[in-house]
Amino acid sequence: MNILNTLFFVAVVGILADATLGASWSYGDISAWATNYATCATQQQSPIDIVHDDAIVDTTLGDFTHALFDAPPQTMTIKNPGYTVQIDLTGGYTIDDPSLLPGVFKAAQFHLHWGNSSSAGSEHLFNGNQYWGELHIVHYNTKYPDLGTAANESDGLAVLGFFITKDYPQDNTAVQRMIQPLTEDRVNYNSESESYTTTFSMETFLPNNISVYYRYQGSLTTPPCYESVMWTVFSEPIRISTAQANIFETRIFSADRGTSNPDLVNNNYRPAQPLNGRTVFRSTQCSGTGSFSMPTFHFVALCATVIGLIIVR
Ligand SMILES: *[C@@H]1O[C@H](CO)[C@@H](O)[C@H](O)[C@H]1NC(C)=O
Ligand SMILES: *[C@@H]1O[C@H](CO)[C@@H](O)[C@H](O)[C@H]1NC(C)=O
Ligand SMILES: *[C@@H]1O[C@H](CO)[C@@H](O)[C@H](O)[C@H]1NC(C)=O
Ligand SMILES: [Zn+2]
Questions:
Q1: What is the average pLDDT score of the chain?
Q2: Total count of domains within the chain
Q3: What residues make up the domain containing 207?
Q4: Which one of 68, 210, 212, 284 would you pick to mutate in the ligand 3 pocket, going by the greatest count of ligand atoms within 8 A of its CB?
Q5: Which of 15, 126, 127, 204 is most buried by a 10 A CB count?
Q6: Which segments cross the bilayer (predicted)?
Q7: Residue-level pLDDT at 19
Q8: Is the Cβ atom of 240 under 6 angstroms away from ligand 3?
Q9: Contact (CB, 8 A) for 132 and 249
Q10: Of the ligands numbered here, which is closest to the C-alpha atom of 46?
Q11: Global model pTM greater than 0.85
């Protein structure tokens, strides 16, 4: 059983706290999203396939540093809204650097998309490849009062996306702390939630190298698909163990606790959408061109070639 047969009749839709009462959508019938949510069929939708060779270097893009993510939020609440695992933040860090984001953006929540034991589930593709999963940190522009208001404004949201692989030889300790309420079966069913007694910073999750990233203008990847998101997708993935991936793949349900044969939440991703003439930009650092399709020495070589050309000239 999986999510594909489940309709979400939910008040909590996508990343919004309070939108679209009474409407429904499911990952089993993505082509029908536009029936109730017309924006899902418009021209700047997400996710997309990010193709390194087609991305334009934007020299005005700065470096994200780990220090930006150091401050732990005031409170963190993990919840199961029936289609993902989401951690809501109060007092999240802000990013206030015009070389990174056009405005002051505050972290409000993060959530994940994933596959199953045999099939990948990231939303963005990278050079045509799909990763096992993807983490999204959702920020809103503080010129708006809250996430719900910002979500329908063209400059309202900034989402940082990190691919996830399940090839780490040991448990990722930050992810283990995050999923403890799941490993102990307390928030595994629809509408369950729990606050962490101790909060922890986003910095603990991040991959080592966050200076290589891609940037484009797009949308929410769930209904109502508002085109309000400045996307930043990082090249280096977060790595978790297969045992940790297995928790996501087999122990999270879209139904209420007590339901017999509850559907699993997995394969909770939207397929890549057409670019429709949009430009994908990239940061100036030399880039990894796909950690699982190409070994490390290839992109080291790519950087060396570029440096070589500069020296020759
Ligand atoms: C994983 O998902 C794929 C794609 O939907 C499906 O074909 C496959 O049967 C699933 N595997 C398991 C073990 O559920
Ligand atoms: C805001 O919502 C309206 C109605 O759904 C939609 O037409 C408009 O495109 C949305 N704005 C953005 C930025 O997506
Ligand atoms: C990140 O990786 C790129 C490409 O390998 C490299 O050029 C850059 O110096 C690295 N940055 C950091 C902070 O490690
Ligand atoms: Zn998402």
A1: 88
A2: 1
A3: 3-312
A4: 212
A5: 15
A6: 292-312
A7: 42
A8: no
A9: no
A10: 4
A11: yes
